[in-house]
Amino acid sequence: MKVSRTAIIYGVLVALALGLGLAVNQSPAPSPVPSVDNPGAMGVRALYLYLEESGARVSAPREALDGPGLPDGLRTVVVAAPSGRPVTEEEAGALRSWVSQGGTLVYLASREAKAKQPQLDSWLRLSEGPMLTPSAEGLPPKEKDLTGTTVRVWSPVGPMRDLERFRVALDRGITVERPEAVPLAGAKGVAVVWRVPEGRGEVYVLAGTDLAENRRLELLDNLRFWDALAARGPLAFDEYHHGVPPKPEPPSARGLWVFVAQGLLVGLIYAVSRGTRFGPPRPLVVEKHRSALEYVRSLGWLARRSKVERELVPELARQLRRHMHERLGIPLTLPEDEAARMLERSCGLPAADYLATREDLVRTMEQRDIRPSDYARLARQYARIENLITGR
Fold first, then answer.
1. 364: confidence class by pLDDT, cuts 50, 70, 90
2. Which of 159, 190, 309, 365 is the most exposed place for a label (fewest CB within 10 A)?
3. Which of these, 51, 86, 40, lies nearest to 237 by C-alpha position?
4. Backbone CA torsion sign across 145, 193, 31, 115
5. pTM here?
6. Closest CA to 127 of 192, 196, 175, 189
7. Which residues pair with 105 in a beta bridge?
8. CA 107 – CA 121 distance, rounded (Å)
9. Cα separations in angstroms, 320 against 26, 146, 251, 323, 359
10. Is the per-residue pLDDT at 126 higher than 80?
11. Could you tell me which residues are beta bridge partners of residue 186?
12. Residue 104: per-residue pLDDT
């Protein structure tokens, strides 16, 4: 009872530990938000850290773009497919006024209908373009990008000077219907990058966030495009419209709390198991086992009831020959008369006695019915010879 109770308690503790461990280690699904805080494939964390480490003046303002979000001295603003908050009419007006005074806006327009920004799309007159065609041009031989395609730079102006190819997603392009807009990059008539002049500034419209995403940042000339923009001056990534919540508690702190909770739970279960009886104490039951003699008598009675099976008689001779082989080295294949002479030399048992016992066994086997007394006689004779061989 005590062993089974202990096993149950340990089983419950192991199950609870596994459950809590799985709950803590369960990783969240990859985030599709192109935020500077997202290190996943579709985030822009790598781009932000690269520009920061290379000495560029980058920031990630988390205020609305109609006020503190556009500080003085800012040269370029990147609005990467915002979906958490809509760009208001006031913010769109503030951006347009800021661009007209010489700023550069890089708008990464989302391809998803639910993430469209009506204020920016109506200002720039954006619409969905045709589908791009697959292309692996420029990729290294071992580089695999099954969901991407290569587009070429048509007009190497501004930050696209000296650039040749970009690696983007195999998706739809984009169309800007303003008459002064110029397509800068694309493939087979499908544009993915546009330049729209606005006053003394300019707007670069990109189809999707492909050029900034972590998964394609190092492919072809994607990174050089951002190097050219950062070289112009301070660059800001709009984080306000992503609506990214505050950073979660570090995993180490969560693990510490889980460890404390496990310790308290184990202590509680141990206290309950050791402090609670499962009923009143009872006297220890002394079990009396049957003696060996009773088992021998039972086997003898069973042998008498079942009578002697004929297979038991030759088994006596086979068992003796095995002992002769194991103890004295007499081969099993040796004829009986030669085995008898070797047994006489080894143990002093006359060969005639061994052969007489063998003949008695043969005569018994020839009988129609073998009586228990015949089997007992043979068993005694072979047991005597076995005692001589084993030294008993």
1. confident
2. 309
3. 51
4. negative
5. 0.57
6. 175
7. 77, 203
8. 10
9. 68, 78, 74, 5, 15
10. yes
11. 152, 191
12. 92
